[in-house]
Design a protein that fits this description.
With 149 residues, the chain is of the alpha+beta class. It has five helices and three strands, in the order αβαααββα.
């Protein structure tokens, strides 16, 4: 339980951002790049990046890497939801406003985000993790979420 709480806390304290997997996020020395290429939406996909810190008190490297990866996925999903909330739907209303009045829509969006694919996973020299999530716009459309073009 303590490990899960630390992973959740780590996900909250690190920041993430929408991203394209085209630019590396970890340098050859295992440090986080100082510059990231940002691209939240392409023609067919919505991208989000997540970062997670490793619990340095764990003696097992595999456990540190697993907990940081789990934390980075949760952070990436949070960042994707935050990004999507600001997107306009076809009717000119934001996703955030639509969620306030439609609990079914909120459930659909949460389900779709959980189905986002991890397309890049990298670990830092201190066993932290950075992931890139990719969500096909087609999945949003199939869930009844029509984004304005």
């Amino acid at each position: 339980m303590k490990k899960a709480l630390y992973a959740a806390f780590a996900a909250l304290i690190v920041c993430g951002c929408a991203s394209s997997p085209n630019k590396g996020t970890v340098s050859g020395s295992g440090e986080i790049e100082r510059e990231w290429v940002e691209e939240g939406v392409t023609k067919n996909y919505v991208f989000a990046r997540g970062m997670g810190a490793a619990d340095q008190t764990l003696e097992n490297k595999t456990q540190r890497m697993a907990t940081s990866r789990n934390a980075s996925i949760v952070n990436g999903q949070y960042n994707m939801l935050s990004f999507l909330k600001g997107v306009n739907l076809e009717g000119g209303i934001t996703v955030e406003k639509a969620i306030e009045t439609d609990s079914v829509l909120a459930t659909k969006i949460n389900d779709v985000i959980k189905g986002a694919q991890v397309v890049r996973t990298e670990w830092t020299s201190d066993d932290g993790c950075i992931i890139v999530l990719r969500l096909p716009k087609k999945m949003l459309k199939e869930a009844g979420i029509k984004l304005a073009e």
